[in-house]
Design brief:
This protein has 279 residues and is α/β, with parallel strands linked by helices. 44% of the residues lie in helices and 15% in strands. Helix 1 packs across helix 7. The chain starts with a strand and ends with a helix. The structure holds NADP nicotinamide-adenine-dinucleotide phosphate. NADP nicotinamide-adenine-dinucleotide phosphate (NAP) binds next to helix 1.
């Protein structure tokens, strides 16, 4: 049995879909069973909370491997303690690209702390360190609809955004195949793009000219705050955009292809798949 936390989120939903397709036994862990209804009877649904170690102990009964997405270090501690109590022996953990850098930067600090705990736990682990997900572009939909414009900081810095589907594919491989234990994978998309390049891809796919307007860091922070994100997350994301502007994310890796045997999706492919959301 494979336990998937974060199963109703961007990566987890696609991972569950891929595990079902592969015929694997899956238990999804959620606070909101209504959100897991989309998986139908193909999965077991466990209602629990990562803040509650006891619910994790119950959810991990009979589980060998589990997929972990957390938003606090305490949640990782709870999951590791539950795994020790129940004998779950392999965790596949979503971290972030910056956690693997020397020095660690921005958001990477929290994830690095959690990675260190996992490595010290004695439970076998696969750490996935993705770069920015392509679905960040979904946050531009309202300004595209209203004024054919995306407002974003980051200057002309390049990055290699990744399709969440590719992150899920590597997670699926790590959870179902041998050879992934105690390794870390740095996951990027296949091509380097500025946010201006992304606006061009959106223009070509939607057939309407979408312009990119550069905004200040503080304005970018206000946009994240309006999304309801807590202050420490907003500050971390603003730092990410500063690093993008400085060109720190301007490289690609081969880790998706090495793991799955397929090249990661381009932003054009992601846009074609999500075109309806932009219309
Ligand atoms: N976005 C990016 O560009 C990016 C890049 C690199 C790394 N990351 C990392 O990716 C992770 C986010 O992944 P995602 O975008 O797939 O997540 P997401 O779409 O934001 O979904 C979050 C998931 O976590 C679950 N959850 C939240 N609090 C919970 C709790 N207390 N107990 C149980 N479940 C809880 C939610 O489930 P329910 O609501 O169903 O309970 C939901 O399924 C973060 O660790 C982030 O740092 C993101």
């Amino acid at each position: 049995m494979i336990l998937v936390t974060g199963a109703t989120g961007a990566i987890g939903s696609l991972l569950v879909q891929q595990l079902i397709q592969a015929g694997m036994p899956v238990r999804v862990f959620t606070r909101n069973p209504e959100k897991a209804a989309k998986f139908g009877s193909a999965v077991e649904v466990f209602v629990g909370n990562l803040d509650d170690e006891n619910s994790l102990v119950h959810a991990m009964q009979g589980v060998e491997r589990f997929f972990l997405i957390t938003s606090s270090t305490q949640q990782d501690k709870n999951a590791l303690e539950a795994a020790k109590q129940t004998g779950a022996s392999h965790v596949v953990k979503i971290s972030t690209q910056e956690a693997g850098w020397t020095p660690v930067e921005g958001h990477g600090h929290w994830h690095k702390e959690r990675e260190d705990l996992i490595r010290a736990s004695g439970i076998a682990s696969t750490i996935l360190r993705p770069t920015m997900y392509m679905n960040f572009a979904l946050s531009w939909i309202s300004s595209i609809r209203a004024e054919n414009t995306i407002y974003v900081a980051g200057g002309n810095g390049k990055l290699a955004p990744i399709d969440p589907w590719d992150v899920a594919s590597v997670a699926k491989a790590a959870l179902t195949e041998d050879g992934y234990k105690n390794l870390a994978y740095e996951l990027t998309g296949p091509e380097l793009l500025t946010f201006g390049d992304m606006a061009e891809v959106i223009s070509k796919t939607t057939g309407q000219t979408v312009r990119r307007v550069e905004i200040s860091e503080s304005k970018q922070g206000e946009i994240f705050a309006k999304m309801g994100l807590p202050k420490h997350t907003v500050d971390g994301l603003v730092e990410t955009f500063r690093l993008i502007q400085r060109g720190r994310f301007s490289y690609t890796t081969k880790d998706v292809e090495i793991s799955t045997g397929s090249k990661p999706h381009t932003f054009k492919m992601w846009m074609q798949e999500h075109l309806k959301a932009f219309q």
